[in-house]
What does this fold into?
Amino acid sequence: MAADEIAVIGGIDTHTDTHQAAVINTVGRHLATEPFPTSPVGYQQLLDWLRSHGEVLAVGVEGTGAYGAELARFLSANGITVVEVDRPDRKARRDNGKSDPVDAYAAATAVLSGRAKGTPKSRNGIAEAIRALRVVRSSAIKARTQTINQIRTLIVTAPAEVREQFRGLPTVELIDHLARSRPAGDLADPACAVRTALRRLARRYRALSQEIADTDAELKPLVTRAAPQLVALPGVGPETAGQLLITAGDNPERLRSEASFAHLCAAAPIPASSGRTNRHRLNRGGDRQANRALHTIVIVRMRHDRRTQEYVARRTAEGMSKKDIIRCLKRFVAREVYKHLPHSNITAAQLQQAA
It folds into this structure.
C-alpha cells in the first residue's frame, strides 16, 4: 500500500528545546519516532515528517498549555486535528517505562484508543491576551502581600522607638508615612537600618499597587469587550469574568455542554451517598481558579442579590447546610455563565438546552 493511502495518528511529547514525535497506524503499530527543534522551521519539519507517513487523522499533543502551545496553534492552522493528551498515570509509567519516544507513542495510542479526546484551547484570541495580563496582576498581588507582611514583621521585631511609632497604623497610613520618611544615621544602628528597610519596602508596595492599578485599567475594557453580557450579570466583575473567560478559552465551543463547563470549573456535584444518606459533595478537582471565581460570585450574590438570599433562606429552612447551598449556587452560576460566554460555533438550540 502506498504511503499516501495509509491513515496515521501522531503523538508528540513536548519539551523546551525539542519535541519528540511518534507516528502509528490505525491498528496501533509503531511506525517511526523522531525529535524536532522547537522553532518555526522545526514545526514545519515535524508536520512534513508526519504527512510523509500517510494521511494524518489526528495528533495527540502532551502539554498544549505549556511547551506545546505554539505547536498546537501551528498544527491547527495547517488543518491538523489536535487532541490534548494528559500525562500518563504513574501505573502506566511503571509498566511501560519513561522516555521521550515512549511518551510520544503513548500520546498517539491515547488518541487511537479514545482515552484522549479533549480539544485544546486555541490560545489565539482575546482570552489569551487577558490571561497574559492577569499573570502580571496575579504575581504583583502576591508580591504586594509578601511586602506588607514583611513590613509588619519588621515592625514587630524593631527596636521600641520604631515599633511604638508605627504600631496600630492602618495599611494606607503606614505605607504613606514610611514612603515619605527620610531615615538618617549610622546603618550599623538597628533602628536606622530598620527605618531604611521599611522605607524601601513601602516604596516597593506603592510601585506594586500602581502596577496592579495599571493592569486593572487595561483588563477592564478587554474583558468587557470580550463578554459584555457576562460582565453585566449580578455579582460578576471584570476580575471574575476574566478568570472564567481564561478557563473557557478562545474556543469555548470545545466544551460540549454547560455540564462540561461546570465540571471544568469544579462545580459539578460529586455523589457522596452511603447507606441511608443521600447527598452530594463539593468537587475538589477542576480549575481551582475558576472555582474561586464562582465562589466569589456566589458570596457577592448571597450578600446583595435578593433572589439568591431567598433561595438561601428556603434551602436553609429545608435543613441544607451552608456548604451544600454554596455548592448548588456554584452549579447555578456555572450554568448561567456558560450561556453568556462568547460562543462562536454553538447553535441557539444548544444554548436554549443549557438554559
Residues 345-355 have pLDDT under 50 and may be disordered. The radius of gyration is 26 Å. The chain is about 55% helix and 10% strand.
